[in-house]
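Supplementary notes for students who missed Thursday's class. We covered one full example, reproduced here. Read the sequence, then the structure, then the short commentary at the end.
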Amino acid sequence: MFSILSALFGSGYGVLFTIVGDYRDKYGISETTVGWIIGIGFIVAFVSQITLGPIGDRGHARTLVYGGSIVNVVGLLMMGFGTNAPVILSGRIVSGLAIGAATPAIKRIVVVGSGDNLGRNLGRLFSADVFGFAVGPVISAVLVGPFGLAAPFIVISAMTLVVVALTLGMAVDEQTEAEPRRFALDLLRSRAFAGAVLIGSAAFMMIGAFDTLWEVVHTDLGSTEWVANLGIALFAIPLVLFGPFAG
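Structure (token representation):
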């Protein structure tokens, strides 16, 4: 169930990336501001991960997951109902803060509860993230046309609240570290970890540039809505398929 929550976080990203062209054309938001809307969420999420993430290691992983999920719903609805750049940008900041806090806590729950299947379960969690991201464009394609820009955000928000309610009674191992850390930056002292961070950062820099431009370019080319949505969904399929094996 926690993997489903993680997938729903990804779905919010997927929806956002496929409607930025609509933000520009309908609300007059410039391409530069669109870039900030996409990028600011990742920046805030990073800060949230290194500052709030370690709280999950002190026996509060469940609180971070549920609190982050609910705050993310607020951010999604702001992005869905916002009609100007400040509101949409603020919603993205709220969402990034929430996801940055909740994601490390979900990973901790999976790590602590995996036993000998740690690599496989982390791979499955990664696949769930990417699957959620790939489903986001599909949700947009189905709902935005007949119901408006807010519809996919409302659906993902409702699904998030349902999953949170279903997981409230689940047992979570909240064992704490012997030496709780205030920030997560000390992990970078490990050369292997730092190298993995650099590789991941390079990959997501490419993904961020791609996602910011993809839908806007297709809007300018006059492509039908489903073409832009399908492109993002197809990009994610190999990650979904090979994630568990890589883990």
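Commentary. The mean pLDDT is 81. The two ends are 19 Å apart (CA to CA). If anything here is unclear, bring it to office hours.
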